[in-house]
Write a structure and sequence with these properties.
The structure is a homodimer of 488-residue chains. Chain A has 488 residues and is of the alpha/beta class. Chain A has two domains: 286 residues, Rossmann fold (3-Layer(aba) Sandwich); 114 residues, 3-Layer(aba) Sandwich (Rossmann fold), CATH 3.40.50. In chain A, the strands form three sheets. A seven-stranded parallel sheet of chain A has the order 3-2-1-4-5-6-7, sandwiched between helices. In chain A, α3 packs antiparallel against α4, α12 crosses α15 and α14 packs across α15. At the A-B interface, α8, α15, α16 and α18 of A face α8, α15, α16 and α18 of B. Chains A, B: Its EC number is 2.4.1.17. Chains A, B: It is a single-pass membrane protein. Chains A, B: GO terms for molecular function: glucuronosyltransferase activity.
Amino acid sequence: MNKMSMKWLLLLQLLQLTCYFSSGNCGKVLVWPVEFSHWMNMKTILDELVMRGHEVTVLQSSASTLIDPNKPLAMKFETFPVSLTKDDFQTLAKILIETWMLAVKDFFWIHLSTIQSLFDEFSDIGMKICSEVVSNKKLMTKLQESRFDVVLADAVGPCGELLAEILKVPLVYSLYFSPGYLVEKRSARLSFPPSYVPVMLSELSDHMTFMERVKNMIYVLYFDYWFQLYDEKKWNQFYSEVVGRPTTMAELMGKAEMWLIRNYWDFSFPRPRLPNVEFVGGLHCKPAKPLPKVLWRYDGKKPDALGPNTWLFKWIPQNDLLGHPKTKAFITHGGSNGIYEAIYHGIPMVGLPLFADQPHNIVHMTAKGAAIRLDLETMSTEDLLNALKEVINNPFYKENIMRLSAIQHDQPMKPLDRAIFWIEFVMRHKGAKHLRPASHNLTWFQYHSLDVIGFLLACVTTVVFVITKCCLFCCRKFASIGKKRKRD
Amino acid sequence: MNKMSMKWLLLLQLLQLTCYFSSGNCGKVLVWPVEFSHWMNMKTILDELVMRGHEVTVLQSSASTLIDPNKPLAMKFETFPVSLTKDDFQTLAKILIETWMLAVKDFFWIHLSTIQSLFDEFSDIGMKICSEVVSNKKLMTKLQESRFDVVLADAVGPCGELLAEILKVPLVYSLYFSPGYLVEKRSARLSFPPSYVPVMLSELSDHMTFMERVKNMIYVLYFDYWFQLYDEKKWNQFYSEVVGRPTTMAELMGKAEMWLIRNYWDFSFPRPRLPNVEFVGGLHCKPAKPLPKVLWRYDGKKPDALGPNTWLFKWIPQNDLLGHPKTKAFITHGGSNGIYEAIYHGIPMVGLPLFADQPHNIVHMTAKGAAIRLDLETMSTEDLLNALKEVINNPFYKENIMRLSAIQHDQPMKPLDRAIFWIEFVMRHKGAKHLRPASHNLTWFQYHSLDVIGFLLACVTTVVFVITKCCLFCCRKFASIGKKRKRD
């Protein structure tokens, strides 16, 4: 570690000490993260928490790829051993990405069934890692003794809610989306009216024709009644065994005090929200730092035909590149982090989505007039050139992305500050119960008032039946009196 | 006007001038207010807008009671003549209050039908005033020429949306509630799931038993399909005539860019919200100013039995009184402004609700353990004394109100600042279209996906019918072949 890094670390430790001995408002945060781009986003929050003097401990498995050895990190990493190696993990991730990228080209239902099997596989690995954490007595005792104030977890990676339950610590989630919005629906109790909220992965916008609404409804029904994000039966059994009472994954996840959704209305279409759901999309964006004059990200052997004015780098800071005054357009695979950086800096896009949420993200940008979408498989060089020329020269795209950029910049409070506020709020008040809708105490049957509707229908039917019977009885009575009189 | 007031006015005018010639961010606000306590709340927003250099013009009828002649106001008042006098208006308001106070004691359905007739009466007066504004050519020309940046209106007093439509100016609403949440449902497109959101005026909490949920559902059905806030047919016709094309009141109200709801989760039970709905309850609360030592608000003849240590005042500043360090409890009729002041200063309450939303407000406070409710008609002196002793001496009430107070004070941004932010946002961007859900473009039939469900059911029925027919056809075919073979 060099001198600068040492100074930096000392400064941060001093900050934490000051915080502890003065205001007493600083807390201890346990983090259960998800790898890759999820981690990049989470790290922004953690860096800010550290800057504000909180003590941050990240739980990571020995197979994790989170730590960048070139950068000093002021947060602690608590590494626990797992039977998986780093290589195993990276191979698995590679297979996931490659399979999904191939599946995207398939017919939608085949695509979804492929995702289903991928999720099943990752669900098993996730459970393995999770069981290795909670059965690690030494680690769990250490975590218990650390007396954390909050568990911060990514809601797409299970186990965070189990740790929060065992440690009896309030839970805060970070989440971009879950397929079919299943987690958001079942655990956050958010509603997604199928008439104007397109299901994630459906590639529809919020303005749908009748047939698009039919399509969206079919997707909703498919996800709600067929798709399984994790093998729920297995997870529910596992969680019940660990907790020592019958419970479900959805129940433990539903205990989250606050949901920090990594989206906002510059990117997403407006839809219902709840008091304990905060939209903090773009929290990782920041003003750009200066760049060297010419550069190129490339990891392999230097091509022979490369001109002398092109520099190759293993990794370049995308945010600084997008914020460079000469950047005119962004060719993107459509990851949400990258799109947010383009929105922040007002750069129109050409989208070449590969897999996962990327096609859906690009649909959002094309619907808002800030991007052109191309198909990586079928496009020609000319297609790409034309698309680039169009987004650069047609003011329509620049105007729209600048409008989105204005929305991102013109908020009552910066998204990162809002995220930090609510994490600190949960630490200060040991939760945020006042934001929790009472719907969490209802079964889905009660939530949709099906029992009440059934009861009222039964009442109405009974009343109608009794009245009809009475009328018939009276009619018969009168008829029989009439007949009797006639006979008499 | 005294010297101080003159200085104050000059200072504010200077502020406006500075604002116009420097940042250019200041705008022109046209206000369509509602009288009495609604005005007190609205005035807080307007004072702040004026303080920030905006030019505020309040439209008021000649029958209005808004202006307090003893106080200098830096906002403009544009007074238009109406055929009603101030006395007429006050008599009508008195009748409304007295009739409603009597109706509260009736059986719920009689109570509601009384409210219905009161609303019908006020609807007619409202339409009279509204038609006198929009047909006042001189006034309308003046307003047109003023080129306002935003219309700020109270959503329970109709006409603001019509003015915004005629003047082609974006609209922002302030609203506490409408009976049955009808305005919120039809014009803001907010959803109120009957399973956990008690209907306003129902006096239920968010944790309901089965029979309470049945009761709530019946109220919802009553309000949705029977109750009329205004005579909608008349208003729709009137608005269509003025606008010159077929329109409805709900449609024009639905154009609002932002809804500022005067409620928050310290007072209200958590429920679904939308991106263009901001909860700013308690925006009028502020730290208390010092008070004289003993005081009493009383408007009539001084009672003979009055002790020498009691001072009588025509009016006392409730907020300063509640914020006095010696204040231990608050006997309140349960108006939302007063309850918010008690929450802000952490004073437990004894509630004696009289009419309108007051019983419902007190139910919120009793459910949150911050108040005891009594019945003004039936209570004895001892009841009041016991209730007071209980809220003062039992730490349960103080702890709960202090918890609510902490929630009110511990927000990412003060409610008044948030309200002002969004009004200024609408002025800066000429609207807030990015927050508007696409549900506004759907009929209620489409919104609930009834057309899609119908279509899918029809498809399923057709498929089942065709398959059954085919099966029957095949069966018959086989049967006839069998018979034929037997015969052969």
